[in-house]
Design brief:
The longest helix has 25 residues, at about 130-155. This protein is of the alpha/beta class and about 270 residues long. It has a single domain, classed as Rossmann fold (3-Layer(aba) Sandwich), CATH 3.40.50. It has helices spanning about 5-15, 40-45, 65-70, 70-80, 90-95, 120-125, 130-155, 190-195, 200-225, 250-270; strands at about 20-25, 50-55, 85-90, 160-165, 175, 180-185, 225-230. The chain has 10 helices and 7 strands.
Length: about 270
């Protein structure tokens, strides 16, 4: 969330240049990565010097927590008349701490739920309880839809842009600050608890989960106007480009912003 100084600077800027686009970043650590100043919001500010960014994002938010801030978002949309709403939410629900809700041992029974999954790799069939994962996707879609509905009610001309993160790197590395562990690891411990011990298998499972999350976003796009999705999968592919299991380093965030986000944002902010 912005500091008092950042709010004052934002308000001073829009007073001086009312014609420049106004953007609100509403989401999680991919928009607000504490202390290191490398996240996507910082990349956007670098790429778009003639746009004003209001960063209402917090480390570790899950989509359900974002939903609880509905009234705050409503007030901000009414107060500042944003042109673009950038959303980063759902990643922690798919490959974060919520993973424990739907990962399973291979000998536990499977329930496929009601969703059409297309091809289900054998590792997924063995280790992801699909009905439980379907419920998680349903909740994520509902949380997104509530924010879209709020936009429709308060600021229907505001364009929404969401994204699908990248395929995570489940090597057990947590988020550290000055050598102290603050969060994570989010993936590797849960995988090993159910017998998925090798990195290649862990990454196959994580990638499939992100692919299903992407499909959920595409379904939202098909039902709503003025909503766009940035597909940033497969851009951060080396261990040295990851700060921990679910956050890239500066070069990774920079590549994602320039390769995946910029083509979507240019028509809105340039």
């Amino acid at each position: 969330m912005p500091s008092s100084k950042e709010v004052r600077d934002f308000e001073r800027g829009i007073d001086l240049h009312p014609e420049w686009p106004r953007v609100i970043c509403f989401g999680d650590s991919w928009f607000n990565y504490p202390v290191k100043l490398i996240d996507l919001n910082k990349q956007f500010e670098r790429l778009y010097r003639k746009a004003f960014f209001y960063n209402e994002s917090v480390l570790g938010r899950e989509s359900s927590q974002l939903k609880k801030l509905r009234m705050r978002l409503q007030g901000l949309l009414q107060q500042y008349q944003f042109d673009v709403l950038l959303l980063s939410m759902g990643g922690n629900d798919v490959v974060g701490s919520e993973l424990r809700e739907f990962i399973k041992h291979s000998d536990e029974p499977q329930d496929f739920g009601t969703r059409s999954w297309r091809r289900i790799p054998s590792l997924i069939n063995q280790h992801i309880h699909l009905a439980s994962f379907e419920n998680s996707l349903r909740y994520i879609a509902s949380d997104y839809q509530q924010i879209i509905d709020l936009r429709n009610q308060i600021s229907p001309d505001c364009e929404i842009v969401m994204h699908n993160y990248d395929y995570p790197w489940p090597d057990g590395k947590p988020y550290k600050l000055i050598g102290n562990k603050l969060a994570g690891p989010w993936i590797k411990p849960f995988m090993e608890e159910v017998g998925v011990n090798d990195f290649a298998s862990q990454r196959i499972i994580c990638s499939w989960l992100i692919d299903q999350f992407t499909e959920t976003q595409r379904e939202l796009l098909s039902r709503n106007r003025r909503v766009r999705c940035v597909d940033s999968r497969g851009l951060v592919t080396k261990v040295g480009e990851w700060d921990n299991e679910i956050h890239p380093k500066r070069a990774g965030f920079k590549r994602i912003a320039e390769v995946a986000w910029k083509p979507v944002l240019d028509p809105l902010l340039s």
